[in-house]
Amino acid sequence: MRKARVIGYVLAAGCAIGLMTVAATTGSMGAAPSQRTADQHGWMTYVNVRFQYSICYPADLLVSQGEAANSDGQRFLSSQDGAELAAYGSNNALDETLRQRQSDMQSRLAGASGKVTYRAQKANWFVVSGQSGETIFYAKTIYSHGQFKSFELTYDRSAAALYDPVVARLAACFTDLVR
Asked: Among 14, 30, 118, 161, whose Cα sits 20 to 30 Å from the Cα of 106?
């Protein structure tokens, strides 16, 4: 199998952030998308300069829609099954606690008839996942230096075999770049 390595540099506010994007496809190229593991996708990395976070995404499943006009993040959409990944940052202008942000996110993603099936919170991050109708959701937020940095993946329950392994990889690669 062939690995492609792309190195780029993003400049903003006088700072240079090194970005290495590795797009690699391993395993059987002939495997049906629903039979692939997370490692068998072509992974790329999106870096947000304004809010200083990065996230990897399976470029063979989710197509980048371009950065938002205010540079807070980006959406990645599937052309095949309706899945969506949203990565975004926001300033904590309302002085919310992490618990308040988690509660708001849970309510929005689960809706009136959905349910949260998993949640975890530590000192500077939380995760929430569950189902609303036929839609499965998984979201993670990191709080750092007065900013919330979040991603949300939503997909149809019928595509769970495809996206469930992807969730673990997204959660692991989602990174706050401010040290």
From this structure: 161
Model pLDDT for residues 138-162, shown as the tens digit of each residue: 999 999 999 999 999 999 999 999 9
Separation of CA 116 from chain center: 18
Domain at 146, CATH number:
3.40.1000.10
Number of domains in the chain: 1
Q: Which residues of 8-42 are buried (b: 16+ CB within 10 A; e: fewer)?
A: eeeeeeeeeeebebebebeeeeeeebeebebebbe
Asked if 145 and 85 touch (Cβ cutoff 8 Å), the reply is: no
Domain with 95, as residue range(s), is 3-176
Is this prediction's pTM over 0.85? no
